[in-house]
């Protein structure tokens, strides 16, 4: 195993160092929760809106629902990308991330305490520099917490639907070395790319590891998970600090 | 004619007063020009991206092109609106405004000085409180000026494609009185709603007046245009100030 | 100001002269109202159909609704255009005109007198030679009047939903001179193009002026509006004559 | 076998009688051929436009192509039907008829004599009262003949692509009796409905017989084909008379 | 008339000989009926699923409905074809065949005996070698019979909705000679192609004859129908044998 | 840790036992490789087709490409599901699995040895009983191996693009116990569901673990991976046996 603190990455970080993380609450005022989350140059606007209805498959369940949509603004990337609404269809990648965000945030909430309400999470990437999905999940948790608090303030909710903080980080193998929180430059050339979603009690919500340009051994998998735990711990602190303000 | 300074609006302004206007350059870093424009609570991210190609209908013309897309984030409005990419089609309103923004900005630029490049304007509404299309045009001009400057710096352009500043403002009749720069609360109950796009030499680029809930006389039309000229003059000052920074 | 009667246009008209206008009622027999309107070579079939339901956003309002769709047959233009149904999406221009026709005709009608019925206006351009949207609005008013009369005959309506005639005309600046009712040849090279929708009491319903290839001064705007009023007066006469038959 | 002349149909015709057929050439002026065809109250605008290109699958073949699109205006039927362009997709019935019209008209033409041109047939139903597809084919032949003549006049074509007249008629079994040229009232309750496309030498181009609400014997099939031949003979005369004008 | 038994086809058959037909019931287990039908190398999976609802236009009729969808797997043909779900729209050919299968199978069933249930027929072509639509209809009848039996077993149906066996076969003219049950190699170069759907009492349900590359006389039509009757008789035997197992 | 061999599952298996696996080569004959793979009642048709072109983003790379599409036949599941081609859009789940299959199979192949060819993998689920994506990947490898062999036989390929076998299996936590190869009944109530894609040298290609209804500890993750390794070893044997036939 490589010692991840013994090398310096292109942006000056050592292997297990996160980029600066900033979480700004109340970024916009219309949604019940609205957060700008930044992982270095990656900037995602995460909102949580409340809709007083539930999808058809939840009718009669007595439970609420949480759904999520992820999208990138066309000018978020270095090269402008065509707008999905104009193409008339959503790319597979977008669908996949939207579903991941939804699953991850549902781990943070007790649907049976939501009443017949739907919380709609929107994660819109204003600027992309790698790790947009993990930033989205991390920021969306804070927006969700704010939305729940708002619903309780309004008296819409009497129970406590919020179960536990959820955060996410990317890890990868670059030139055989474990790196935490990959920016675009690393992400695009990583041999292995892994997104890890955790709860603050150290449980996994989701682990997605992909050998984009190579495969990985059980030992490397363990190193990657170790690194992800380090990153998530910092993210839980940043979430807690933001929510304490 | 009503004296527009003799009454006070719900937000404390008199009839011919603009909301506070803020123009933030360099809002994101990937596009050649990136601006956050605010008209009160209306906040639009305007970017100008350069693509080194031209659409088919311009091939062989020796000219460049400028295109624009306008969109609202789902949580920009008070009630969350379905995402157009998920619906699989773009609403008529979105199409209409995108086309308006494109036509308006083309008045600011000499396409024959662009080379075979396309400037893609994207206006994404982060928070909507009325006047999103006029804020979009006003901010997009600044993003366009930044993109042109950037192209000249890079040596891509040798000529001077920028012709003249373009700005836009809404005016309307509320309870029979002329009001400048309508927030959502006024916009939704205006008898007449007019969007005026001007150049800084006082020429009109486009005038779109609609009797949403009533009709309007020639005299009222003149009052509305007078009000719009007052608003646009302030916007040209705000644009110049931002570009001077 | 140019004297608009002192020059002769390509088709022999002077500046403020309309093309021959013809309005044929009962063009087809299935819809409640069916009109063929001709502005010179521009020919539009306008129908008004009655549907005994209202859109969701009107439920419970006690009011009816009026909606409109505009479309061009593929062979209406000189070069055949692809059919929008085959492309699977509607062009921005089509959306924009459909919305304009709907707004304009709603000014002709008192929705609260319609009962829970929807009037669906369809304007299908059989032959296009400029001014298709203004011909559509002018013809659709007659189809609407016929549909309302039919509804009253059938006893579906007891009140009087028809408020006032609405007509529309295009004006433009060609080589700096104001021209009324532009055919395609002029429309495609106009510096400024304006569509004016009026009621027969001389009020404006909508004014859309666009500097397609130039800008326009306040003085030119006034000349254009003067010309439009002349055109609309003739159209109200043609509508009244057709309805008197 | 029933004697088809011994009974009277709802509209006063005997079994083997066509509705009045009218073919108006030069209905519009932009397409190379433009015809309004009427079978009683069924009215279809048929145009033939020339495009100086061929579809990809014909590249290098040295041949031209003929394609067709059929569509119904929304207000053509008694109850208004949603516009296919707005629904975003074309119905199976529309596809099916478009393909039938294309196949039928290709029997009228020698593609090897067309040069690398495509003839685009458009059949737009202005008013529907049964038999729209057969009227469309019958009228489209005349539009095609006009388009070919126009191409020869312009010198685009030197050969003679027109091979033979093609016409189409519907026949059906109503209450067990053979009827020719069904209007909507009969079509909707026919036990068997058959569309027959023929050349003027008495050959079949296509036969489509459907037991909509029943099946049919070989003997009935023969009676239906006999009736269709009677109808087509009249249509060839109407086409010839129209083209002789 | 050619003697159809006096020549040998590319695959060794004489003119009026069918390819080997195999019908495998219980091909999959989830649908109420599931059949693999093979006409030579053409292999189609036909299923009949029961849905306890009826489409809107049948509400209140007291009847059930039967609907059908036909599709080809992308790798069914020699050259892989793009998947229709990925293209976002269904081809005209697919629509046309789906509608044909639905109409044909509705002739086999008494909708008034179905209760308010819909039978959904799915015909998915696993391997295509000509005659996919006729194999689909022939196999779908067996799946339908199994589904009806299953519904009766479950007690959902008390009446007897099955009316009569329905089968289908293709016939064509190849080099002027009548051939039965065309494989792809013949189908693609046939002058005339005809699909005939019959009941086991010898009645026609549907006849679709197309002069793909030529026309056909009344005499040829009769020879083609004779051949189709020979083919269908064999198919009814194969269906009966499969259902007897 | 639970002893996974000490309990019996609903279908009689112990925790670490696979369902019977069958791999049938040459299932259809048109594609270069065609395999039917069965994991118990889950049955997937996997084909590998060769297209002599590469996607645009690979032009000039000198490499080939491999793409994959996954789809479920509408009657594959217990309740029939709407066909995606008819809905006009592909579900997120379908997109996600298609992308997973493509990534996984690209690990089995050296694109630089493919020439400018694309291998298109199609996985169509004929019958679904859990684990369709893992069966698809496992079967698709065999189809790919056959397609490569076929290309070499034809002389299209001279190098050896096949790098290593790839197989996939699902594991999960059911009532807190690790289970291998989940059928639908278990999959739908698993607390944690993990799909593991491996090479036959024991490296991971992809790991996707999801806490569908719960979270999971690092220890549970390790148990799940141990189980997956056991399953994959059996699958590599089944692939090798099939390819040896």
Task: Explain how this protein is built.
Six copies of one chain form a homohexamer. With 245 residues, chain A is α+β, with helices and mostly antiparallel strands. Chain A has a single domain, classed as Ribosomal Protein S5, domain 2 (2-Layer Sandwich), CATH 3.30.230. Chain A is built from five helices and nine strands; from the N terminus they run E-E-E-E-H-H-E-H-E-E-H-E-E-H. In chain A, a hairpin with a 4-residue loop joins strand 8 and strand 9. In chain A, helix 2 packs across helix 3 and helix 3 runs parallel beside helix 5.
Quote the beta fraction of chain A: 25-35%
Multimeric state of these chains?
Answer: homohexamer
| Number of helices, counting only DSSP H or I runs of 4 residues or more of chain A | 5
Query: Averaging pLDDT over every residue of chain A, what do you get?
Result: 94
Distance between the termini of chain A: 40 Å
Strand order of the largest sheet of chain A: 1-2-3-5-4
Q: Architecture of chain A, according to CATH?
A: 2-Layer Sandwich
- Provide the CATH top-level class of chain A: Alpha Beta
Pfam families (chains A, B, C, D, E, F): RNase_PH (PF01138), RNase_PH_C (PF03725)
Catalytic activity (chains A, B, C, D, E, F): tRNA(n+1) + phosphate = tRNA(n) + a ribonucleoside 5'-diphosphate
Protein name (chains A, B, C, D, E, F): Ribonuclease PH
GO biological process, one term (chains A, B, C, D, E, F): tRNA processing
